Amino acid sequence: MVEVVGTAPTSAMVITKFVYRHSWKTNLINIKGITRDSITIMKLTKEQLKEIKNQQSQTNNTKRVISPELEKILYDAIPALDHGFVRVVDYMGDDTSIVQAARVSYGKGTKQVSTDSGLIKYLMRHWHSTPFEMCEIKYHIKLPIFIARQWIRHRTANVNEYSARYSILDKEFYLPTSENLAAQSTSNRQGRGNVLEGDQAKEVLKLLKDDAERTYANYEIMLNERYDGSTIDENKKGLARELARMNLTLNTYTQWYWKTDLLNLMNFLRLRADHHAQYEIRVYADIMLDTLKKWVPITYEAFMDYRVGGTEISAKGKLVIKKLIKGEEISIQDSGLSKREWNELMEAFNLNDKMI
Amino acid sequence: MVEVVGTAPTSAMVITKFVYRHSWKTNLINIKGITRDSITIMKLTKEQLKEIKNQQSQTNNTKRVISPELEKILYDAIPALDHGFVRVVDYMGDDTSIVQAARVSYGKGTKQVSTDSGLIKYLMRHWHSTPFEMCEIKYHIKLPIFIARQWIRHRTANVNEYSARYSILDKEFYLPTSENLAAQSTSNRQGRGNVLEGDQAKEVLKLLKDDAERTYANYEIMLNERYDGSTIDENKKGLARELARMNLTLNTYTQWYWKTDLLNLMNFLRLRADHHAQYEIRVYADIMLDTLKKWVPITYEAFMDYRVGGTEISAKGKLVIKKLIKGEEISIQDSGLSKREWNELMEAFNLNDKMI
Amino acid sequence: MVEVVGTAPTSAMVITKFVYRHSWKTNLINIKGITRDSITIMKLTKEQLKEIKNQQSQTNNTKRVISPELEKILYDAIPALDHGFVRVVDYMGDDTSIVQAARVSYGKGTKQVSTDSGLIKYLMRHWHSTPFEMCEIKYHIKLPIFIARQWIRHRTANVNEYSARYSILDKEFYLPTSENLAAQSTSNRQGRGNVLEGDQAKEVLKLLKDDAERTYANYEIMLNERYDGSTIDENKKGLARELARMNLTLNTYTQWYWKTDLLNLMNFLRLRADHHAQYEIRVYADIMLDTLKKWVPITYEAFMDYRVGGTEISAKGKLVIKKLIKGEEISIQDSGLSKREWNELMEAFNLNDKMI
Amino acid sequence: MVEVVGTAPTSAMVITKFVYRHSWKTNLINIKGITRDSITIMKLTKEQLKEIKNQQSQTNNTKRVISPELEKILYDAIPALDHGFVRVVDYMGDDTSIVQAARVSYGKGTKQVSTDSGLIKYLMRHWHSTPFEMCEIKYHIKLPIFIARQWIRHRTANVNEYSARYSILDKEFYLPTSENLAAQSTSNRQGRGNVLEGDQAKEVLKLLKDDAERTYANYEIMLNERYDGSTIDENKKGLARELARMNLTLNTYTQWYWKTDLLNLMNFLRLRADHHAQYEIRVYADIMLDTLKKWVPITYEAFMDYRVGGTEISAKGKLVIKKLIKGEEISIQDSGLSKREWNELMEAFNLNDKMI
């Protein structure tokens, strides 16, 4: 599974297989566990399998535009991390919806741009934002709480999260694979350095696993209820759910419906699929990038060219580049750039020999 | 298409006739005009008829949920005022999408509410907002600019408006029918009083019509271009469109794509379908209320009961009502209410004899 | 302290005393601990005391309007729960700013409402929202993560949260006092029932305390760094902070700057100071209600009358009330209300004998 | 007051003169008119002069941070176009507020960036948005309606506009100076070409002036009320204001309070102070850029360097620049760029000889 995440499954069959390893309902049925790094991974419940099957089996007629490639993976649970998933559960519009809106705005003015692809590229290049707001997508996401806390900072989305005030959280926690067990970077306060190895890696994984399991077990004791709904001690009351949840660790999984428009989805992906983003959220962003490609392929191409693969250059940076093109000498002192800025600029143009 | 349009209140026949009288494209074809209050009303263009026909003739298969009643009127141009229209051009979700989101949020907690209808009513009553954000709708609207300026104040929507920087506006202006030619209220600064009559009504209509036509004609002269695209004087340049438009009057029609979620649609309708709203925007809101009913019928019922037909009572007002129920005497002096508040309260409960 | 929280301190002196018991910096100075339920409560750091003193000692001249009562408590750390606080750190506008904006909007139309107080009440009663958006406030809040997760769902605010990707979280966790250790309600999925007592209460508190301390200690081990910045084992690397944080429990404290306008503050308070809100967030909302009163006293009065103390009645509910006022018989069957709705209505008007 | 106004760039004297030519109240006092392009320009009213004097004469003590340069021009009416103005009427925070918020977010992590200036530049370069949201500013703006319609599309602001439903609009219309009377660009659908000259210019100005005056005069006739509040014909009723306004042209002035945070102000300025923006809105944006400089001078510098003076380059564009730096041949065919993109790229780096 690990290999597939981030590049996205290439066929419905692959996805179907993975689906069995995930769950977004309680009342798990007792199927043989799959283990990785000696952690048992939860499986799909009967209820959940049935729900997906029902959703996927419907064939409705609509006069709305459809996105054929996205329809193929609609409702699929694409695995993310060890217990998470990304599901596209609804959408509205496709590439032509952007073009339609732009042509209303610009009227005859758009006739100069002859093709849909040309128009979408033009809009992307010149930061015309409103036509991209005309498409909407809704995801069902399962993710660790500490990642949900990063994610929710994107305010321009609609969210319905599983509430631990009302219901008991599933017994599922994120545990990094050993190759993702990075040390703190010594050069960068927010970054990761090399991977921890040997005994220290084992120790860390054991601490994470033991603490998550113990706090979850105590959560059940406080609730006086197991995650399958059975009561522990008939003579006791349970602590209020809204209180007991505070004992859980931040790697516990939660889930939500997350709906946003195409413009804000791209803003999200631009930040979260970037290599500066935390690995754990990037895994989700990479999967979503793939759903973007299926949904609005022309917009996806323009987004990759102008946003993801592009660069911004400051006024001072432009002067440096102009001199470099002319073959003139330029030093960091003359440029007015800080060392950090200088190096970022040189790196962007692969001028590694000029980095200092 | 034509047969379906007639879901609006009055009659299908009338509406059907009107459909042909509206236009959202330039290049009008020359069909015999229809007059009302001696104003020629524009007709649908060939291009436009073809576009609607094309949109409505598509039948796509989708795994998404659909709203059968809304599908029936999808893309129809429902007439509004003398040249405007409301078209639903896309949507996402239905009543079950709200229920689905709520059940994810509240998990097993929602089992107490056994039916979809009961759950939606509960959500509406207790101002649970996020599940209603899970549905989205997109309209194509043609409307006078002075109404567009009220409308745009609802910020939580996505908008692409026809741009008069790029293109020439159609020669279409709103002129009230004589029964809507209201005098300024003398008791209420924002309200309308009785209808103007006789010569004064005729004079006002003539002023509105003449000024709109003259300023439009001068708009063409300044542009050196007629609205059909032909040049007026080959030896002259035209004033920039972004400047010439400033000569148009505020009853000129514009158009836009307007997309919002169900929660914000209801916030819009609550204010704009209210009897305090200006008549001209209420015409649009009333049509949209009807599309709401087709789209999400259960939500519509709850909305009408709790929001539109409901009342809010202040803390002081509650004390008054409590005394009235007990049959106790209560005077405005004792109540702490202002005269205006007192009367609003009495009116809400049909206690007209207690109004002062 | 416990007695004061929620009703808000009544004098600057009281606040000053409490200030010493809270902390939003690391590097705690070693002052004698205060214990409650055998949990040591953190105290202010030297750095923090100095920062507050500096902020409070400045006296700047401004032509802007000021709110005299709010100035008195500016920068004070008002205690909330066991380690949290609420600080007002900046604001813009006062009651007159609302009036000024309304008078621009409504021009001469507002002359009918003669006083500022009358105008503000009118705006509140008729849901005129934009004038209340003209005032802005910024808080510095320290709060448990599980409460922060509820809070952040209010999207119309600006937030800068302490980042555990960059920095190490303080060793502070929320532990309920014994009187707040409520059992799960058996009648209401989200509610609290009676308080847990005796041995079970002690057991729960011990579990919460032990789990928080153990997971925090293991957090330090994984980081290979103590919260005072000292290294644990010079021969080891530390796990990346962005990963190690996942081991912390949800009652760990975080902090943020939270800025919003007056309208959205009232929307927040309406929901979070309500008795349906979780006790732990209500503690914060109650303190903020008190800052609202100091900041914009006229608006506060109108808010309490129309929003907090008021009631909404559905169309069906109105019919019931009308009949009750007339002294007519009315049964739940005739009303069309559900049992739940019926009881909510009767309770709102203290008609407890009619509840079923 | 008059003496204080002159803080704007050019000279106090010039600005002082202009101040007298603007008005945001009705009830104009009768001072000798000043003419430009033979259009009488309105003057300040007594009421307005008094209001500004009152606002500017207050000296309040505050513990809040202040921005000394912005205080100097607080409440001043800085002229814009022929009858418009920009007034800063309130603000919250300064450069240090951004730093303070960033240091809370990034904690010890920010210690690497030693100065406030360095930190703000870092935040700007890496699109860290939330710290810039911690500052807020409120403007009072008078502007033509067709510009207001562009402006209002920036949704992330709080607005209270003068309502022509309630009050009568001032008799003030925007008329371009002859040097701004641009022809429609023939190469660019949204652009301006050369200036109209001679008789055509005179004709256009006359049309604009006459149509604005006639429609305003008819507006008064329909209202049966002059803009000074006097009744025209005692025996007639007036048309409702909400209707009569539709007869006004789009160059009629309106006014509003407009409040936004620093991040969204910069987003606005980035688009509206750009040379692609319509001249008439750029006049306002330029004035606001100057207020930005006074308010948060460090942020202003970073904004000019990274946003206004900077450039974005697509992935394909980067490859072209890399080759140019290496001195390699590159043609548009090899680049994969469209002609338009190629030329935009060459222009950005002053490689005019490479444009095709």
Provide structural commentary:
The structure is a homotetramer of 356-residue chains. The first copy, chain A, is of the alpha+beta class and 356 residues long. Helices cover 42% and strands 15% of the residues of chain A. Chain A has 14 helices and 11 strands. Chain A has a 5-stranded antiparallel sheet with strand order 4-5-6-10-7. In chain A, strands 1-2 form a two-stranded antiparallel ribbon. In chain A, a hairpin with a 7-residue loop joins β8 and β9 (192-195). In chain A, α5 (116-125) packs parallel to α11 (297-308) and α10 crosses α11. The first copy, chain A, is flat, with a radius of gyration of 24 Å. Mean pLDDT of chain A is 84; it is low at 1-43. Chains in contact: A-B, A-C, A-D, B-C, B-D, C-D. Chains A and C meet through α6, β8, β9, α7 and α8 of A and α6, β8, β9, α7 and α8 of C.
Spans of chain A of at least 5 consecutive residues whose pLDDT stays below 50 are: 1-43
* Number of β-strand runs of chain A: 11
Secondary-structure-derived class of chain A: alpha+beta
Strand content of chain A: 5-15%
Q: What is the CA-CA span between the terminal residues of chain A?
A: 41 Å
Instruction: Order the strands across the largest sheet of chain A as they lie in space.
Output: 4-5-6-10-7
For this entry, what is the oligomeric state of its chains?
Answer: homotetramer
* H/E element sequence of chain A: HEEHEHEEHHEHEEEHHEHHHEHHH
The average pLDDT of chain A is 84
What is the number of helices of chain A?
Answer: 14
Query: Major sheet of chain A, described briefly?
Result: 5 strands, antiparallel
Largest interface: A-C, 57 and 57 residues
The general outline of chain A is flat
Helix content of chain A: 40-55%
Global Rg of chain A: 24 Å
